[in-house]
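User: Quick one: structure for sequence A, then sequence B.

Assistant: Sequence A:
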Amino acid sequence: MMTDTCQPTDPATTPRSGRRILAIWCARLSVDRWRLSQGLEAGQRADAEPLALITETAHGLRIDAVNAAGSQAGAQPGMMLADARTLCPLIQTAASDPTGDLAFLEKLAVWAQRWGPWSALDRPDGLLVDITSAAHLFGGEEQLLADVEAAFARRKLAVRTAIAPTAGAAWALAHYGPPRTILASGEDAMRRLADLPVAALRLDADVLTVLRRLGLKRLGDLVGVASGAREPGETANEAAGRDALHRRFRNRKSPSANPLVRLDQLLGKVSEPLLPVVPHEAPLVQRRLLEPIRHRSLLDQVLADLAADMAHVLEGRGEGARRLELGLWRVDGEVIVRRLELAAAMREPEHITRLFADRLEDIDAGFGIETVRLRASWAEPLGMEQGDVEQAAERHGTSLAACIDRLTVRLGTEAVRRPVPHASYLPERAVRWRAPLEPLPVMQHALEFHERPLKLLDQAERIAVLYATPDGYPQRFRWRGEVREVVRVAGPERIAPEWWRQKSTARLRDYYRIEDARGRRYWIYRHGLAGDGRGGAPDWYLQGLYA
């Protein structure tokens, strides 16, 4: 698994003379990845039809990416699907996968280190590779670009590439310059970049709108205004316009919101921190057996040896395993995998062996198992400790983490959870289920509900309510075939819908705490108000019971 959680290193943050950055733009990364997952070749009939990758939002389906045919038909990323269908009624759709795209891009970043010592992500669809003093290994920068495009073509990915002294200039040329552009170190950058649009500065959409309204459409226009030097024949109005540009963006700290900072980064006047992607190798131990084994006792012995080897590896790395994967390779080529997720980081061989014992009961060895591999796909830091109370309890079988691990093995991962509060006023969203020993999330604004029931139904059940007026208190209601008389009512507690998550037609709720003639107490709510213009008559639901 690749991560980019390391701190910026000196080579990635300190500009130096002769620095060379390779920018790789996967112009249709999401679409290419979807096409490869479907087994389609570029240019096939199925791939030539208009296609849009969509995601569901509070306002409807939105397009995240389109293929070449869809773009020619008028569909664009960011457009609502309903608008795109008016331009292209036959456009096909598929669900987008931004998480999968990011994981795929991380793998490409590690793979791209064949051209330079480090690489960085350029989200959402690009890479930056430092090729300083490495181009001669490929016969020069032109041959290096040719090798890059050929390598991506073999992976069936369409890319555009460029090389420049800074990451900003390389990005601009890869996205808006001619194919395979190379900007030499001593060359005047603005002479080559002046005709590019201001969008080549990687600015936010609202900043680009402001620049276009000011008449600054090209980088050359922005350089003339932002230089600060009054040219011969410049009028007082032009000088005032330059000063206004400096004042408008002077206090914006984010580079993507300040065109002046982005321009300085592009020209190399201001350093641009880049976060290299560092590959993380999961601890792995294995046994290649001289003779295939079929008996359970022999398999248990091999597992115990692997657990001891894994403990040594994790101890050397100062880590403990949270997720372990045991792979068994049979003689006939079939691979059997058993996974184990632990409640807390640990590396005790006996505990690992005991937990896997229950997962090996149904193993079919076939003609024999010839290779056994144990891999820690998830590990966390775990320092060396002197024997403490927890380890003593583990030896006696009373450790909390060990107890949770055994329950998880027997009952399943989803069966062992604990509820934790979540910052939401809606009852069904006010609690989240977490792993038993996972640290509680830090809530900036804790929500406390003193009068809500502890027992909530999995789903609110609809009830029939009799009331004097549409906005009055409930007097009688029917739930699960029984009519209940209401003798006491408290409320309402009004909860408005989450406008940032729900549609604009969502209705508010009025919650009541009620008690029937037999002393039983309920938590019910009216969904909507009469005449609110968001539906018909209000509906009533029962959501909780008081003890």
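Sequence B:
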Amino acid sequence: MRDINLRYVDETYDEDGLLKTFKLKYPDNYNFGYDIVDDIAVNDPDRVAMIWDSCSGEEHKFTFAEMKRMSDKTANCLASHGIGKGDFVMVILKTKYQFWYTMVALHKLGAVAVPATHMLTKHDVEYRVRSADIKAVICTNQSNVSRAVEAAEDIPTLKVRMLCGETREGWLNYDDEIEKASEDFKRVDTLASEPMLMYFTSGTSGNPKMVIHDHTYSLGHLMTAKHWHRVIPDGLHWTISDTGWGKAVWGKLYGQWIMESAVFVYEYEKFEPHEIMSMMEKHKVSSLCCPPTMFRLFLNAGVEQHDLSSIKYCNIAGEALNPDTFETWRKKTGLVLMEGYGQTETTLTVATLRGMTPKPGSMGKPSPQFVVDIVDENGNSCPPGVNGEIVVQVEPRVPGTMIGYYRDPVKTEETLRGGWHHTGDVAWKDEDGYFWYIGRNDDIIKSSGYRISPFEIESALLLHPAVLECAVTGVPDPVRGQLVKATIVLKEGYEGSEELVKDIQNFTKKETAPYKYPRVIDFVKELPKTISGKIRRVDIRNNDVKLSKKE
């Protein structure tokens, strides 16, 4: 085993064996495709890069040698259709295995990969293609998004349309085009500082921002895989996430392959806890990362019905962890959930890393890769126990932080000001230096002069025996400004009623400060979520605002 990752990092440990410093290093022409994937393919060709399974029964195993061969063919295919250095290419492939060698191929070409969700509408496509001058779209045939692309108007930059697994008028058959391409591909010169990847990320208002990263972003995830996921060279890591979201490359590509570990991918139509846990059993997954919501669903379905003994490490991200979920998972499986925090604009910035003792509900401590602080509105560091905004030092620049918001210097300056990246997330730290998440600035509920954290109320609600899932938001109110609202999915056997509303409200008053109890409770069949399982409170808020305007 060559430990390829040691080429790219200098790290030191304290007397207790905890990571103390972590400094990335790289050549000026660093490129993930050539310097990681191809390097492993040449020196250890049979090493497994990915195991791919699907609910349809189709399965594939890719070695690094196969990833090199397929990414070289794909790069030649794209180049033959005019895609080259600096071109922006939208990749909408759900969890199809083609995503992996497509991304590597785009990196090798020096093109800018733009992963996107398959849930885009005609308007979404038009905005994205025009905003970034998208030149090509590589699309799955498994959703209506290809029809949205076809219907999109006023997008003259879009020259190439490739459809995965299907021949259709106006589209090239992506798989057929790759098959025809040569395996011999000559390296394209790229600089580590040149753009490599871009994500559209939505806020609570306005159009999505375009977050752009350079080639060093892939190295920024070495910390993620090595000290948080704790992947091992002969292990199999599973991060449950659709490729349209940034979390996919956090846990299904960059850091894991730099550590020479295999990733597992399962293509499914709908999240079903027993189906997912059966995949963990079948393939003997060794490390797992997914949102807290999924762990709650595993527990509710009956995790004890599955042999998950192959799993050695579990991580959560995407939303704050309820302490009750932490304790129940530990009792049922013997595994602790190690929390982590970051954004589309960054890599892992705060986490419970290898060797640390987790505090249930805490995000952990700042990663040694970055300088992270919690500051007040004047930029002053907050003492323990005081809420403030999480900020990450970006001058001098550290790999893993964005270049900026593409074509938006005003928003870039607003976010990257004074040498710090302002996350917009509110937290506080305790006397031991652990960070505790409060919520997005936009998530904080302002009611009758109080500032209320949704997470604190959600944690209380989840202790109620009837509550399976919940989301707490602020709903407009002419007197209090906002009322605390709980949108709740009930466990099987419970039905919504006025009596249950009163019971849940009284229960919450005993579990947290009485003024925080939800004055409005809405029982629903399911919560709005991203494909990766993260609850979308913004959808609930926006719907409530619309309803209030109608009234």
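The mean pLDDT is 93. The longest helix spans residues 64-80.

User: Thanks, that's what I needed.
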